[in-house]
Every structure is written in structure tokens, then in C-alpha cells.
Amino acid sequence: MPPSRSGCAAEASVPTPVRQEHRSVFPEPVRSFTRPLVPVKKVDHGEQADIVLPQLFTMNKLNVLMCGTGEYTTGWTGSGASKSDKKIGVVGLTLFDLRRLGKVDKLGMVGVNGSKFPAIRQHLEQNIGGVYKDMDLSFDEFPKGGQINPDAYKEAIDGMSAGDAIIVFTPDPTHYPICMYAIERGIHVLVTKPAVKLLSHHNELIAAAKKHNVVCFVEHHKRFDPAYSDAKAKAANLGEFNFFNAWMSQPKSQLETFRAWAGKDSDISYYLSSHHIDICCWILQGKAVPTRVVASAATGIATSEPYNCVPETEDTITLMVDWQSTSSPTHKGVGVYTASWTAPLKSGVHSAQHWYYMAEKGEVTVDQAHRGYDVTVDDTGKAWYNPFYMKYSPSESGHFDGQRGYGYVSIEKFVDAARSVNAGSTKPEDYDANGLPTIANTVLTTAILNAGRISLDEKRPVGIRKEGDKWVLE
Ligand SMILES: NC(=O)c1ccc[n+]([C@@H]2O[C@H](COP(=O)([O-])OP(=O)(O)OC[C@H]3O[C@@H](n4cnc5c(N)ncnc54)[C@H](O)[C@@H]3O)[C@@H](O)[C@H]2O)c1
């Protein structure tokens, strides 16, 4: 028998809340509360009066397994706290806070090398437990006993129940097998960008998520940046698309953090341009489609001293994409998406990021790196910070205070969606209709990135077209 989904809405007028079945990973029962969505009615049948609750949804707390124990999950990079803007990570901190606020229950974390967990726990105790009040930092770890096991995610997921969730921040080539393993077991999935490297894998995840009726989102947090989402709405009123130009970069020092995989498992376009390609696809959803991609790259810095990345590593990649309007045969646009991980040190920003959108009736310019807020310190000089992404300073009561940061909101939206589907209050496909970064809504982002990689490797333009209901490359 397939495992039952936690907290599904019952068909009857007075449903019995369904409790989640728990096995080894999350052994204790989930605390739940019920939320009547409509007022209680009294129906009089002459002698008998029944209380009718037309519908009652059980909103269970969500159990979440974090896949990956690195910079984005914990802020721990193996050689100490990250030197980037994510010193205490994003995923773990957000989930600990969502547990404090009653949305999340049991947590697990899976990596490859179990011997890292004592240092990770100490890092979290010191920098989260020691800084914010009322944080429960407990989580179950995999692989256990300090073992090394790249397949430990299977054991961790096998211990979960349908309706639980995973959040995946692992190297790009591992996203597809981990996500597919979870989806096939009825587990909701939030996967970091780039969702997968191949368009064929993206198509398979769309189909699997549909078949197993789970929420599958890509963690494109920039869609929740207030400036970006407002700009998207403004761009919608500017008529036919004409030109989009995006730049995103990180300082060369990041190559020390990324050395293990940079140029081997992924490239800078997948790593950084994925953000702005997704924003452009989001703005153009329903307005235009990409038809052709040509890529160019600069090289020589990442492969030299002191970074010594593998010879295939590009420094800066530009993808030039042709777009065709879906309503006007004569309107065509061009998108240029450039990303680099060899930007200068000490430029004052961790990620330089700006874009320009031009359409028939106007233009939009966004500079997300400089937000009218900078700090200058004698020793280190001037730096521009972005508390709109993650705000790490505590509240006046000593609690974590970054609930409005778009890094946090992105994870919370997924947690809310998974709980709502578990409760039977919404269906996974509802989220495709409202502009969220679902696996179905992000397919063209992967199509462009995959086409860009092929264009670089094979030194040719790559076409994108729809075949039936699937996007394919040619
Ligand atoms: N660091 C960032 O700022 C950032 C931001 C957004 C997205 N991402 C994305 O996150 C992913 C990488 O995460 P990170 O930045 O935390 O990297 P990281 O290198 O710091 O950590 C990667 C983690 O993945 C784990 N891992 C590797 N193979 C695994 C497997 N088979 N099963 C379970 N865990 C495995 C490693 O043990 C490690 O803990 C990439 O896809 C990247 O594009 C990173």
C-alpha cells in the first residue's frame, strides 16, 4: 500500500485529522492544529440539531530533511565559517526559526562525510544558539557514526513519510538523483538553482512531481526580492519585449570555496546566470519564448595561480538568447546574460548584480548590489550590504529578525505550500498558476542554461523548441 500523505483533507463534512506515520528519522508524532476555514453552522432537522463543519483542514507541522551541509545550509565550509555573505548559512537558520514559529517539526541533515557533524553542530551552537533566543538546533544526522557515504541521502529519505519534505543544496550533478529519489517516495522537494543541468532531467522531474502529486519548487529566491518582483509587475505593462542585459559576479576568492567542483561539475553560468535567466523567463512567461542560444567565454584567471582550477574552467560566460514574441510574429527580443567568478576582490559587494529590461514602451533598471546602504570600516574599507536578502541582526527581544528577507521568504513559501497540500487545502498544480518557481514554471531557465553549455562545448548555436508539451534542444 502506498504511504498515506500527512494531514490530507477528508472528504466527509467532519473529517478526522490524519496523523503522519513516522519511522526512524522522525520518530515522534507531529503536533498539529486544526483550522476551520468556514464558520461552524447549526442545521436544524426538526427534533435533531447537527453541528456541521463544512470543511476542516489539518495543518501539520512539516518534517524537513536538509540535503547538503555546506555553505548555504549551515555556513560551514569545511575549513571554518564561510567568508562570504552566508557565514551562518540560510537553510538551517530559516528552518530553526520556522520551527520556533510553529511551522516545522523534525529536522534532519544529510551530507557525505559524517565526521563533519561535530564541527557543524559547534558552529551552529555558537553562531545561532549563542546569538538568537529560543532556537532549538536539534537535528538527526546522516551518515551516522562519522562514516563517509555519498548515498546516505537514500537512508535518510527511506526513514521519512510521504508528505515530509527535503531541501536540496548539494553540488549540481547530485540534484537530479536526490530529487527523483524523494519525489518517487511522495516527498515534497525544494531544490536550489540550477535545478538540474540537463533539460531532459528537468522534464523528468516535472512528470514525476505530477505523478506523485508533490510540491516541487526551485529555490529561485530572487523572485521574492521586493525590487525584482515589483519590477516584474512594471515590465508587464511595457508591451513587447526588446532587450534584456544582466550582469552577476562574485570575487575571485570564491574560487577557493568552489575549487572542488568549479569547472568540473558546473560552470559560472549555471551557478550565477541561473538567477537572472530565471527572472527574465519569469517576466516573459506567456509573452515570449527563447528560440536560440549562442555562448562565449573568457578564460585564464581561474586556471592560473593561486586558484588552479581544472583547465576547462571558464572565468566569465555570456549567453546570448533570441526570444520570439508569442503574440506578434514580427517582435523578436534579445537577452544577454553574463556571469563571472573572477571579479575583483574588495569591490565592496559580495555579488555584483544588475539588469536592464527594455520593451516597446519603456525600460526597467535594477541594481541589486547597491541599495543606498553602505558601511565603511577603517581596516576593510567601504562595503554595501543586503539585509533585504538575509538580515542577521537580532530583534529587540533577542530573537532572529530576518523573516522578511527574501532568502527566508523563499523557503517559507515552500514550507507553506507543502503543508497546505498535505492539509488538502491546495493542490501542487495550483502553484504553477500563480507565478511561483515550480519545477514546471522553471523549465525554460534550464533549457537556456543547458543550451549555453552545449554551445560552449560544441561551439555552435543551439535551438530551443516545443515538441508536443515538452521543450527540447536541437
Ligand atoms: N553558496 C551559495 O551562495 C549558493 C547560493 C545559492 C545556491 N547555491 C547552490 O547550492 C548548491 C551547493 O550548495 P553550497 O553552496 O552549500 O555548497 P557547498 O560546497 O558548501 O556544500 C555542498 C554540500 O553538499 C554535500 N553533498 C555532496 N554530495 C552529496 C550527496 N550525494 N548527498 C548529500 N550531500 C551531498 C556536501 O557534503 C556538502 O555538505 C549548488 O547547487 C549551488 O548552485 C549555493
TrEMBL record:
Domain of life: Eukaryota
InterPro entries: Gfo/Idh/MocA-like_OxRdtase_N, NAD(P)-bd_dom_sf
The protein's name: Gfo/Idh/MocA-like oxidoreductase N-terminal domain-containing protein
Positions of the UniProt region annotated as Disordered: 1-23
A matching Pfam family: GFO_IDH_MocA
Lineage: Eukaryota, Fungi, Dikarya, Basidiomycota, Agaricomycotina
Residue ranges of domain Gfo/Idh/MocA-like oxidoreductase N-terminal in the record: 109-220
Transmembrane parts of this sequence: none
